Amino acid sequence: MLLGAPNTSRISVWAGASFMEWTSTVKLLICVACLSYASWSDIKTREVSDKVWVIMAAFTAPITIMEVAWGRLPLLLLVLSLGLCFIIGLAAFYVGLFGGADAEALWCLGIALPAYPKLHPWMSQPLMGLQQPIFSLSIFSNTVVLAASTAIYVLLRNLLYKARGKPLFQGLEEETFPRKAIALFIGYKVDASKLSERSHVFIMETMRGEKRRLKLFFSSEKEDFGLSEEKKSELTGEVWVAPALPLLAYMMIGLAMALFIGDLVSFITLQILSFLQIL
Questions:
Q1: Do residues 172 and 269 share a domain?
Q2: For the chain, first and last CA: distance in Å?
Q3: So what's the pLDDT on residue 222?
Q4: Which 8-state DSSP code applies to residue 194?
């Protein structure tokens, strides 16, 4: 090689790295902007305009396709990310775990962030060094862990309620122990007079004849949401409710944690395995 001649291999590597940093940064900023707005809207009204996801997909999909075309992103990884996110989002929606906006957000993440964003050399991996091959699934798993952690708060609230000498299941004595145990983790009691149709809760009690029964599962995002004036006449005093979680806010936090900290499910799994080895 002639003295002073440019090293073309180094230039191509540098150009490729710069390209991935640029595209990753742009897509990440778009996702953060859209999820931040969606989180605010979800917390405030539990509703998000479909325009948010149209914008998110319209601006990130072409960049992802360009990454694949330039050989910077494996096509198989994109197909797996998009396919698995679509299946998980659709299944979660139909069983009532996701609202429509939650599923659409996951679908958009499936195409926008299939791989861990390559921002800078010092951010080549999260702090824990634990990440799934498919970054969008890491965001989803973190979202699930964060949402599930709400059960700890709910249980503590119920234990405090019981410690004050108040009956948790008055009028629901005929419910089985397993159903009562589930209720302790997913809901709590509130004064029915303070609820309205706009309350961000699901009503966990129904009337069968003159008896109250617990309802532990909800088939859609709108069913039993809030307490209508008609139901107020049926349910008086304190009633069991389950909080309608702003999952998009959890998803936004899950994205940040996946980026900076790592995959929580992988971390928890490793901790459990390490503990079992000690035993």
A1: no
A2: 61
A3: 55
A4: G
